[in-house]
């Protein structure tokens, strides 16, 4: 991870097994993985094994922006840590701490030519959506 890595974190009032499931299963990812209501997931694929990959196709509802978020898992420690490398060679690490509540922290290498504050806020907003979705499942 490079020294310019950004970080976002959230505490979720749910047990770790549920948070892990929501983070990793496509039928859940599609419901929370967006920074705001103006974004949707058009497609979610996830093969959660080391060397496996994922693809999240995200788009603005108005059609003005669309991108693929795609990478390969490099480390998986169940209920603790997920590391991956994106197709553009940037790295990310997701940590899960605690059992209930669970703190989810995402540390990621930013895109060099995009505003860093915008990238950190985009990530934090996604985690906020995760928390809202997870906690309404009670």
TrEMBL record:
- Pfam families named among the record's database cross-references: AHSA1 (PF08327)
Query: Residues in domain Activator of Hsp90 ATPase homologue 1/2-like C-terminal?
Result: 15-123
Record's family?
Belongs to the AHA1 family.
**Protein name as annotated:** Activator of HSP90 ATPase
Which organism does this record belong to?
Answer: Pedobacter psychrodurus
């Amino acid at each position: 991870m490079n020294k310019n890595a950004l970080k976002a974190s959230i505490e979720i009032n749910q047990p770790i097994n549920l948070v892990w499931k929501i983070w990793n299963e496509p039928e859940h990812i599609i419901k929370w993985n967006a920074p705001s209501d103006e974004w949707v997931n058009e497609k979610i694929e996830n093969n959660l094994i080391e060397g496996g990959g994922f693809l999240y196709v995200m788009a603005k509802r108005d059609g003005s922006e669309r991108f693929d978020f795609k990478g390969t898992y490099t480390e998986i420690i169940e209920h603790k840590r997920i590391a991956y490398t994106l197709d553009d060679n940037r790295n990310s690490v997701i940590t899960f701490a605690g059992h209930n509540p669970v703190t989810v922290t995402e540390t990621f290498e930013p895109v060099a030519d995009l505003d860093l504050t915008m990238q950190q806020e985009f990530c934090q907003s996604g985690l906020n959506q995760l928390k809202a979705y997870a906690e309404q499942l009670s």
